[in-house]
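step: validate -> pass
step: tokenize input -> pass
step: predict -> running
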Amino acid sequence: MERSRQAALTADLVLFVIDTVQGWTTEDQAIYDQLRDRPTIVIINKIDVAAPDQIKNLPPFPQVVPTAAHLNQGLDLLEQAIAAIAMGGQITSANLDFAINQRQEAVLIAAQTALNQVQQTIADDLPLDFWTIDLRIAIQALGEITGEEVTESVLDRIFSR
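step: predict -> pass
step: emit ->
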């Protein structure tokens, strides 16, 4: 939790997810109070199973996107909200203005293709082992751009959870 808070305090954009079934907790309030001055999109998830009063009793937020993630509901609205903030200049990071060369473009396309394949693998309800193949390709491609390598131990931790 502490690592997440520290990352959020330095993030260009915070996606703050609220589980409507659990409702707004004192922990949620404490975290939100720390992030108030950061560009934040509040994602109200599980709207498909929440009682209407659970959604109404949430505090007013500047930017809210209701979703039912497991049904892929509202994800297009979330993408639009992220794009609006990125294009609207609310994100203050200087490194958003960048140019990519042809090699980087090819690597990004390879990463996108691999991630699309992961989505198809998940949709086809294939075992986790199949997911890792395309995830590794995407991670390696992104690592070429960022200069970071992801080790086996990181992937093991991801799939152990």
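step: describe -> Residues 102-123 form the longest helix (22 residues).
step: cleanup -> pass
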